[in-house]
Write a structure and sequence with these properties.
The complex is a heterodimer of chains A (168) and B (203). Chain A has 168 residues and is mostly beta strands. Chain A is 11% helix and 45% strand. Chain A contains two helices and ten strands; from the N terminus they run αββββββββββα. In chain A, strands 1, 2, 3, 4, 5, 6, 7, 8, 9 and 10 form a ten-stranded mixed β-sheet that branches. In chain A, a hairpin with a 2-residue loop joins strand 4 and strand 5 (81-86). Chain A is globular, with a radius of gyration of 15 Å. Chain B is α+β, with helices and mostly antiparallel strands and 203 residues long. The termini of chain B are far apart. The relative contact order of chain B is 0.21. In chain B, helix 3 (113-121) links the parallel strand 5 (99-105) and strand 6 (127-131). In chain B, helix 2 crosses helix 5 (186-197). Chain B is built from five helices and ten strands; from the N terminus they run H-E-E-E-E-H-E-H-E-H-E-E-E-E-H. Helices cover 34% and strands 22% of the residues of chain B. The chains are: A mainly beta (168), B alpha+beta (203). Chains A and B meet through strand 4, strand 5 and strand 8 of A and helix 2, helix 3, strand 8 and helix 5 of B. Bound molecules: copper (II) ion (CU).
C-alpha cells in the first residue's frame, strides 16, 4: 500500500468510525451490481449515483464486510492499450449524476471473505469525501452479465459499442 | 537479368499473396471492421490450454479464431470484452460453434490453466484460456504488434497489467482477417464473423 493511500484510508476510517459519519441524504443509488468472477478474483462493482442536493459530493471509496479491500478505479484506453488506475474520488455534481459502469469508473472489490454467487445481495457502504456514507445493496450478477439486469440497459449497450470506450 | 528478377521478386510475391487471398471466392469479403488480410501473419503460437494441454496455432485450423489478450485479475475491461464476445457468439447462433475465443493471459505469474478454465467458462463455452511462459506470450503478442506491461506492485503484492485492447479475427485457415478496435460495434463483429463462418459464403 502506497503511503498516500494509507493516509487516505486512515482518514476514511476515522470519519466512518466516528460519531459524525452522516448519511448522504441527497444521494440516490441505482443500478447497483457486481460482476462476479470465479474463485477469489477481484470483482468490479457498478452503480449510478444521483445527487438531488445543492452541494456537489465526491465518492472516494466503499467499505464492505464481505470484501477485505475496496478501491475506486478507472479503466481507460489510450493508444490501443487498456489500463486501470486508482482514482482518489469521483464527483457527483449538485443536481447531477455520476455513473460507474464497465470500461470506466468502478469499485474494485478484493479478497472476498466468503464466496459471492450470482443472485446474492452484497451491501457496500459508499463513502464520500465530506464524511457522509450511503449503504447500498448491490446485486451479484454472473460474469457474462452486461448490466444490473433490472431492465435498464447500461449506456454503453445503447450504442452497441465494444468495450474500452471512454469512461463517463 | 538476375538483378531485375530480384528487384521484382517482392512485388511478385505480393501479387501472388493477393491472388491467394482473393482467389477463394472471387471478390474479397466485404468486411466492416478493419481488414488486415495479408497484413498480419497467420495464427501461430506454442502455449498451454486451460485443460493443461500443450497447443499450437495449427490446433485451431478449421475454426474461426477471435484472439484477445488479457488476465484474470482484470475485473473490468477483460470481463466486459469477454461478455460482449459471448453476446456476439449468441447472436451468431449455431454458426458460433465454428468459432473459438482464445483468451491469452498476459499475466503468466498468476494465471494457471485451472484459474483460466474457471474464468473463460464463466463467459462462453467456446472460449479457451491459453497460458505460457513470459517469452512465449511475448512472442505471440509481438507477432501481432500487440503489447502488455506489468505495472508496479502495491505493498500487498497486487499489480495490474496494461494490455492491448484489440481483438484479432482469423479465418478457418489461420489467416488474419479483421481487427476489432475498442470503438467497433457488436453489429459489425457479428456481420464479419458471419462472413467468415457461413459455409455458403466462405466454404
Ligand atoms: Cu479495477
Amino acid at each position: 500500500m502506497k503511503p498516500p493511500r494509507l493516509s487516505l484510508l486512515l482518514a476514511g476510517l476515522l470519519l466512518a468510525g466516528g460519531a459524525h459519519a452522516a448519511a448522504a441524504d441527497h444521494v440516490r443509488a441505482s443500478h447497483a451490481w457486481i460482476r462476479v468472477l470465479p474463485g477469489a478474483l477481484p470483482a468490479g462493482a457498478y452503480v449510478t449515483l444521483e445527487n438531488d442536493g445543492d452541494q456537489p459530493v465526491a465518492l472516494n471509496g466503499a467499505d464492505s464486510t464481505v470484501y477485505a479491500d475496496v478501491m475506486l478505479h478507472r479503466s481507460s484506453t489510450a493508444g490501443g492499450m487498456s489500463r486501470m488506475s486508482m482514482v482518489d474520488s469521483l464527483d457527483v455534481p449538485a443536481h447531477g449524476k455520476a455513473v460507474l459502469a464497465p470500461a470506466g469508473y468502478h469499485l474494485m472489490l478484493m479478497q472476498p471473505k466468503a464466496p459471492v454467487k450470482a443472485g446474492d445481495t452484497v451491501r457496500l457502504t459508499l463513502k464520500f469525501t465530506d464524511g457522509s456514507t450511503l449503504a447500498t445493496d448491490f446485486v451479484a450478477r454472473p460474469a457474462n452479465a452486461m448490466d444490473a439486469g433490472d431492465g435498464h440497459a447500461m449506456p454503453a449497450m445503447d450504442h452497441g459499442a465494444m468495450p474500452h470506450a471512454a469512461g463517463h | 537479368m538476375k538483378h531485375r528478377r530480384a528487384r521484382y521478386l517482392p512485388l511478385l510475391l505480393l501479387l501472388a499473396a493477393g491472388l491467394l487471398l482473393g482467389g477463394c471466392g472471387g471478390a474479397p469479403l466485404p468486411f466492416r471492421l478493419t481488414n488486415i488480410s495479408g497484413h498480419m501473419p497467420d495464427l501461430d503460437f506454442k502455449l498451454t490450454d486451460d485443460n493443461g494441454k500443450p497447443v499450437t496455432g495449427a490446433d485451431y485450423r478449421g475454426k474461426v479464431v477471435l484472439l484477445y489478450f488479457g488476465y484474470t485479475h482484470c475485473p473490468d475491461v477483460c470481463p466486459l470484452t469477454l461478455a460482449q464476445l459471448h453476446v456476439v457468439m449468441q447472436r451468431l447462433g449455431p454458426l458460433a460453434d465454428g468459432a473459438r475465443i482464445l483468451f491469452v493471459s498476459v499475466d503468466p505469474a498468476r494465471d494457471t490453466p485451472a484459474i483460466m478454465h474457471a474464468y473463460v467458462n464463466a463467459f462462453d463455452k467456446r472460449a479457451v484460456g491459453l497460458v505460457g511462459d513470459a517469452r512465449s506470450v511475448e512472442a505471440l503478442s509481438k507477432r501481432y504488434r500487440s503489447a502488455f506491461t506489468r505495472e508496479p506492485s502495491s505493498a500487498d503484492g497486487a499489480y495490474e497489467v496494461s494490455h492491448s485492447s484489440a481483438i484479432y479475427v482469423f479465418d478457418k485457415r489461420g489467416r488474419a482477417r479483421v481487427l476489432a478496435t475498442p470503438s467497433a460495434s457488436q453489429d459489425d463483429l457479428v456481420h464479419d464473423l458471419h462472413l467468415l463462418l457461413d459455409p455458403g459464403i466462405n466454404p
